[in-house]
Amino acid sequence: MATATNTTPDRITFDTSPDRYHHWKLAFDGPVATLSMDVQEDAGLSPDYKLKLNSYDLGVDIELADALQRIRFEHPEVHSVVITSLKERIFCAGANIFMLRGSTHAWKVNFCKFTNETRLAIEDASENSGIKFLAALNGICAGGGYELALACDEIILVDDGNSAVSLPETPLLGVLPGTGGLTRVVDKRKVRRDLADVFGTIAEGVRGRRAVEWRLVDAVYPTSQFKERVARRAQELAQMSDRPASGPGITLGPLNAKTSDDAIHYSAVSLEIDRERRVATLTVRAPEADQPTTPEAIVAAGDQYWPLRAFRELDDVLLRLRINEPLIGTVVVKTVGEPAAVLAVDETLLANTDHWLVREIIHFVKRTLKRMDLTSRSFFAMIEPGSCFAGSLFELALAADRSYMLDDPDQPNTIALSGMNGGLLPMSNGLTRLQTRFLGTPERVDEVLGEQEPFDAQAAMDAGLVSFAPDELDWDDEVRLAVEGRAAFSPDALTGMEANLRFAGPETMETKIFGRLTAWQNWIFIRPNAVGEQGALTAYGTQKRPEFDYNRT
Amino acid sequence: MATATNTTPDRITFDTSPDRYHHWKLAFDGPVATLSMDVQEDAGLSPDYKLKLNSYDLGVDIELADALQRIRFEHPEVHSVVITSLKERIFCAGANIFMLRGSTHAWKVNFCKFTNETRLAIEDASENSGIKFLAALNGICAGGGYELALACDEIILVDDGNSAVSLPETPLLGVLPGTGGLTRVVDKRKVRRDLADVFGTIAEGVRGRRAVEWRLVDAVYPTSQFKERVARRAQELAQMSDRPASGPGITLGPLNAKTSDDAIHYSAVSLEIDRERRVATLTVRAPEADQPTTPEAIVAAGDQYWPLRAFRELDDVLLRLRINEPLIGTVVVKTVGEPAAVLAVDETLLANTDHWLVREIIHFVKRTLKRMDLTSRSFFAMIEPGSCFAGSLFELALAADRSYMLDDPDQPNTIALSGMNGGLLPMSNGLTRLQTRFLGTPERVDEVLGEQEPFDAQAAMDAGLVSFAPDELDWDDEVRLAVEGRAAFSPDALTGMEANLRFAGPETMETKIFGRLTAWQNWIFIRPNAVGEQGALTAYGTQKRPEFDYNRT
């Protein structure tokens, strides 16, 4: 199989800011922000491809993700966002095919995962933060371009006789749209499945009135009216917001990660890598200084307020782990510090959920934990004396595939819950991690949440909150064997097993995108009909036509 | 990749009967039937492997599926079924590894699909037919063996210090349990996900009290009590049934398919294959003679009653198509006959839903249509003059990926709905096909169901019931281009696209098994870590240890 690695860049960082953007322009006009795509062909992550026609690679999407965060945190006065393009008659041609073709399988999968998370973050902002999104399609909108539009609340397409929306992946490339397109077409926009089937096989797409009739877009307007209609609708959407009428917001400063070959250190988070064992230790530290307790003081603390700071660092390290450290199969999750300090922060958050910034912080914590759920590494939480798996940090143990808690009467070691475990940090399946854990004994959820005292190891075992509680004689061996054993298994089987066990309970559009759709996409991404020497992805843009093995599977 | 085809048999038939079983014994004792696995090592579908330790191949499962149908139709007096083994200290070792290793990818996928459908049929019988299932695990129960047990209502395991339940696929074979195991562990039995994670990595499994505590089984009993406890519980489960106290049932006779190189003909169904175009035409014929209208007459007609006869034939032909005709990518679906004759049958079925046999027939029709939904071929329904897409047969058009209806005023051509489209034939997602079709306009469902008159092509288009209605001038070209166009696409991309578009709306445990779980399994089944020269599936049973590429994806 042709899986060239030449266009897969070496090390990726996710930290950026508008003054460093290559591909997006972010403009503000009162309650409406405009996010305009203007991809620089020569500024891709690799020199091996050119980002023509507003096609994108991971670098473009990192900027988009950053812009979305900044609108949420830095611009509370923004109530609606127009996503459009600065290129004439082209909105976006989707993910760059030459980038995909030159990428390893793992890169493709991670690229799609990140872009999916970014589009879900758009929907999260719409649903939970009072920011409505309007896709203003001023030209051709293909593949990932249309999938970006699908993530918005509404889609307006210019009716110029040429501009169309399309998902040409199946007819042109022999793969699926990788960013939720098929799911959102039938599940979000509720396009009839037979029409979706037709749409998914027409490379040139659908335009004009038919695009409206098929529910693919909400409206079409002639070029002469397009800008004015978009502006008017953006103002209307902005009216629906419950965000503050004005700022100030806070500034998201750089994360200042200190990296070495085998470690990444931030202020509250660190990742230490044991390459020989293929294990990393992820440590999150509780706040050490007093934290603000009023919204005003939280705004003043800004990005240095502990939960925002710690979870921004956690988010960043998870992304780096995924992309830059594919050989690290197991992550040992630890916490260090005073449980009381974490619980005090939780109390402040819970007391101020109606403040815009607190709301943003809580949703950011939620999204970061979802990122952990979706990270295809084995997470083992180690609950030891000196740790602070309490409240929102206990979610790390709940997100882990297993947890081990040292049971040694001589060394106090407890976990604790808070209101933050009660509903503000749902998983992609719409349930809390406690609800998902206790699907078989749902009465347990309220029982454990009602417990005022911390749980020692025995109480935690009795309550079903941890997996194992070895004593001090067994601890070292049991933990070592578990971690070593994990490292010996097939990484693919572990990825599949975890993807199935982590999401018990209901499926949502979100879990469907990462479960059903992504799993099929991953399958297709390694089939010779896509990536073989004569596969469609390989043949695209060459003179050759793809040759398929027509056996149906 | 090592995908030897030597152990993939040539042509498979699905028609069998108890007197021809090699691997199962079916015994009756009043309201309790016992289905005992006793696999003949040398009676596999291929001589290339031996079915040791009650391991199974497709042939074993075809008998199981047949036995389940016969219990439903031939033995209405059966109210509970014990599934056990006649081998000493071995219940079932799961799917035969050497069979899997020697199979093509497509064979593995089809094998898993069929075995999944069979296990779901067990759950369907429990939920809808008043037959409860008790897995009596008299010994080692591994992999697919445990997955069979998971499909039962209750699981009793012998507590002999040795017998355990296990899902050793990940630790031993580098693949996933392929028959719903992971999903059922967390979603049906609601095993805590961390315990499921541990369970899924312990090759030797879990036994005794721990198996009960982890919810993996419902009870364990020492060998001395095992048989008596199983018998007692089977009697208790039988009490819960609403089936008749006694027979007679009906006899499911052989289907008598007439096959040639390019066709399969039954009494009401035919499949004609155009190998060059990779297209098959599937035709279902309406009843030609008068059909019974009372339960007594339906019992007397038995397997010759049209809906049972036609859908048994349809079920059989879909299975043969999947397994024996992998190169046929597109199926043109036609019907022939009097719509009124189909609607009259629907009326009889609807008027007698409380009769046990009518209930069985309706559920059989439902399962067959689900089989069509899950068949990875493109279905295009062609609605032409002389067709009878009415009521239950209109479900074939709704199950198709698209439908084309000739609009020619000179040739009357109509479709019609009946109460059978209203709720008795749900898809795997729990919705009817009409509800799924009209997710975006749910009010349409009742509107179209309330329409008393048949729909001509224009009315059908207006109502959203068909995809296209070309006139007589365009028909030939439009249909030909659609079918030819479909045949040119990557079969893998089509499989993935259809699997995502067909199941809009809610996900259920059933759709999860075919969506999330199966898609991941298919991915893993073609990864070198499983099937490469040094993959775990390849290495199993040899002296070699697997060697993995430890990059996580």
Radius of gyration of chain A equals 24 Å
Range of helix content of chain A: 40-55%
CA-based shape of chain A: globular
How many strands of chain A? 19
Describe the 3D structure.
2 copies of one chain form a homodimer. With 553 residues, chain A is an alpha/beta fold. In chain A, 41% of the residues lie in helices and 15% in strands. Chain A contains 22 helices and 19 strands. In chain A, the strands form 4 sheets. In chain A, strands 13-14-15-16-17-18-19 form a 7-stranded mixed sheet, sandwiched between helices. In chain A, helix 3 (105-128) runs antiparallel to helix 13 (356-373), helix 4 (144-150) runs parallel beside helix 6 (181-188) and helix 6 packs antiparallel against helix 20 (509-525). Mean pLDDT of chain A is 96; it is low at 1-6. The interface between A and B is large, with 93 and 93 residues.
